Amino acid sequence: MFPTSTQKANWIFKDEMDLNALRENANQKFVARFGSHMSPDDRNVFFLDANEEHIIQKCHEYILRDFCHKFQPTMPKYVFATALNYLKRFYLYNSVMDYHPKEIMVTCLFLACKVDEFNVSLAQFVANIKGNQSRATTVILNNELFLMEQIKYNLKVHHPFKAIEGFLLDIKTRTRMSDPDRMRPHIDSFIDKLLFTDACLLFAPSQLALAAVLHSASQIKENLDSYVTDLLLGEKGSEHLKDLIEVVRRIRILHVRTADDHTKELSRISKKLDKCRNQENNPFSEKYKDRIQEALNNSL
């Protein structure tokens, strides 16, 4: 249950300012760690700032989506949503300059497959990856335990999908709306867009589900105000109505906010990242190979 979950306790934040502060702190910690010998101006030129880091992360969220769409066997949407949630959590406290999203995102997805019981072996999983599958296997195995540690071993993720089904069934049963399933395409579109915002870090799944249902009802010219006030909130619900309206308003603002096109910026930022990333965590670098070899030697 979400109210008693680690998700509610550890991964729901007050507002976007809190999230931005965490990302800024992760960025500054990396810069302080690796740029202590540089002047402030040199650091600004050499390292990514928090906004550039977030652009890299967001672009890799869409890369992850495309990878999941092509994945064989067909991957359920909730597995992708769990992986996306892990990725967002990870980069609240870590810099993309320390751990590149292309490596963390596949680790998030493989872990999500296990947690959500989408049964694919590691060999089946990496067969979907273009390029060096042996290296991909090594990256996933090396990062999996670290990823779990960074997300506090809070592996269960609650999504709005079940709550949506509950609302649709309730509307069918307790209202006179004809064929509530007419809302599904609009609900799916609404939730699909929300997945790429910070909504999962700010709101309960039931709140996201209700916002999706209310939005979708308006799209098909139906009114569910009385359903919310009379049936959902009940006699004493008026004291909560103002808060609920504000929550739905904030969610719909996230939904309508148009994502900027960072295609041109991405090339520049990616080149900058290649230069400033921590080479000890770069599977293509000699420092990484030396670190892995040292770890193996110490384990013998």
Explain this structure to me?
By secondary structure, the protein is an all-alpha fold. The chain has 15 helices and no strands. Helix 10 packs across helix 11. It starts with 5 loop residues before the first helix and ends with a helix.
Radius of gyration: 22 Å
- The proportion of strand residues reads under 5%
Alpha plus pi helix count: 15
The succession of helices and strands, N to C, reads HHHHHHHHHHHHHHH
pLDDT averaged over residues: 92
Structural class, by secondary structure, is mainly alpha
Report the end-to-end length measured between terminal Cα atoms: 44 Å
Q: Which segments are poorly predicted (pLDDT under 50) over 5 or more consecutive residues?
A: none
Major sheet summary line: none
- Outline: globular
Count all strands and give the number.
0
Helix content: 55-70%
Summarize the structure.
By secondary structure, the chain is an all-alpha fold.
